[in-house]
Amino acid sequence: MHNIYTGKRVRLRPFSSSEEYTNIDDKLMEVPSEYWGPHWRPLGERTEEYAPAGVIDPASYSAYAIERLDTGQLIGVEEHGSIRPGVLWTWLGTHFLEQHQRQGLGTEAKQLMLCGLFESFPLETVYAITVANHRPALRGLERSGFRYVGEKRGMFIADGQPVDEIYYVITREEWEQLPVRQYVTRG
Amino acid sequence: MDANETKIEKGFAEGRHVVLRPVLEADLADLARLMAENPQESLPWTLQRLKKKFESEKEPGLWGKTDRVFVAVRTHGGVVGYLTERQSKQAGIFWGFTHVADGLDDRGELGRDLISAYLAYKQKWHNPLRLSFDILGCEDEKAAWLQAGGFALELKCERMVMHLGRPESICTYAWYSDELKQRLASRDKE
User: Which listed residue, A67, A94, A173, B144, has the most CB atoms within 10 A of its CB?
Assistant: First the structure.
């Protein structure tokens, strides 16, 4: 099973060390997300998470390093949820350091993750969830080939106001039509 | 049955036919059977797996940080169902799933009573903004219990799980508090 996927602008690969994983996570968490709010997980928890298999464990949770091809920098984390027998879906999520956002890199990172998921597992659908006011994420999901499914109203509260969670999906058939499949390099 | 008809004691819910309470060790064999029967459970629950979870230091007594399991017991005794509750880090937002034993003559009555008792319990003690349950698209009986309790279909996600050899959807049925309804209406007006 491949765990390195390279596109035109970014590469997904396993984290090379616990330090690499925790360092980028520190950077991603140190400033609260404008949309999701503050989030912090203690170092011990993340070190423990890395120890068994380098945070690639399809049965529970997987996280990949996103590397920029032009500079070789580690710029974010691509993650997906558990994959279980009898369950035909999982979720994916993308986190970028602020200075690398809004450059279209997330679109390719998501599409590379979709290649990894649909090529390796008997999944029918991959879902992505964001909040209604996160317009960059909504646009990014649509550019990546996801389509709107619906929403859960008031699942999140920000500034005292209810915010809806928005659900996006891509099916195996829809992923098969994406151009990324023609140029992705595996391994 | 409306929430006013539901009697509540000791912080947990007592409906007309069922009582909801945390899981005791003596309930585990019945609960393992019910969990294995529930098409929403993605793990093949066995008594051994459940005992280990029950004894685990991380999630003691099936009343852990993420999941809280209630068993539904007939008022005159006997475990007939369960409800697993999950809670957002933000106050007042809860979701979960539930099951009542297949094949019982009064399954519909028990299911409606379970939902009604749970809603009354949450309203009395936890000031919920919203509650929701996920069910499979083919679970028409559960959909009817939820609709009878004031829940409405909010989201349907296709091709989520295998059930009896076929891909099935997962449907979310949600209940909004009056406060949330007002806040949503006010937000949507802007």
Answer: A94
Q: For residue B10, what pLDDT is reported? A: 44
Q: For position B81, what pLDDT does the model report?
A: 97
**Who's near A52: CB < 8 A, 6+ residues apart?**
none
* pLDDT the model gives residue A40: 86
pLDDT value at residue B9: 36
Partner-chain residue, chosen from A124, A150, A151, that has the shortest CB–CB distance to B159: A124
Q: How far apart are CA B157 and CA A146, in angstroms?
A: 13
pLDDT of residue B61: 67
Give per-residue pLDDT as tens, A121-144. 999 999 999 999 999 999 999 999
Mean pLDDT is lowest, of A25-29, B119-123, B168-172, for A25-29
Residue B54 sits in a domain whose CATH number is 3.40.630.30
- Chain B segment 106-145 residues within 8 A of A by beta carbon are 129-130, 132
Compute how many other C-beta atoms are within 10 angstroms of the C-beta atom of residue B105: 7
Residues of A with CB below 8 A from B90's CB?
156-157
Q: Domain ranges for chain A, please list them.
A: 5-186
Class of the CATH domain delimited by A5-186: alpha beta
Least Cα distance to B170 among B79, B40, B49 occurs for B40
Q: Are strands B152-163 and B166-176 parallel, antiparallel or unpaired?
A: antiparallel
Largest CA distance in chain A: 47
- Pairing between β-strand B7-9 and β-strand A89-96 as defined by DSSP bridges: unpaired
**CA–CA–CA angle B124, B126, B127 (5° rounding):** 80
User: CA of A81, closest CA in chain B: separation in Å?
Assistant: 13
